Amino acid sequence: MLKEFQEFISRGNVMDLAVAVIIGAAFGKIVTSLVDDIIMPVIGAILGGLDFNNYFLPLSSAVNATSLAEAKKQGAVFAYGSFITVALNFLILAFIIFLMVKAVNNLRQRLEREKPAVPVAPPPADVALLTEIRDLLARK
Question: Contact at 8 Å (CB) between 14 and 8?
Fold first, then answer.
C-alpha cells in the first residue's frame, strides 16, 4: 500500500495540481489585497469616504454600532459591503485567469503555426512499385 501511495504521489499530474493549488492560494491573497487595499478605498472615497466593508444593515433592533465588527457582536447583520468586496475579488481573479488562459492558447496556436512540417519520407521501393502497378491497372 505504501508503494502504491508513492507511485500515486510521484505521478506528474498530482504534483502539477499541488503546485497549482499553492500558487492559486498565493495569487488569491494578492487579488484580495488589491481589492481591499487599493480598489475598495477608492470606491469608498467616491461613495462618501466610508469603508465599503462596513456597509451593513442591522437585522436586530439591538444593533447600533457603526462598524461591522462591533455590529456583529451586538446581533445579526446583513453585511452586503463584505459580499460586494468578495464578489469583486472573484470577478478580478476570474478576469485575470481568463487573460492567462487566452495568452497560453495564443502561444500554443502560434507554436502550432510555426512548427515545421514533418517531411514525408518516400515510401519503400516495393510499396512505390505496387502503387505504380495499381495506377496502371486503374487506367486500363
Answer: yes
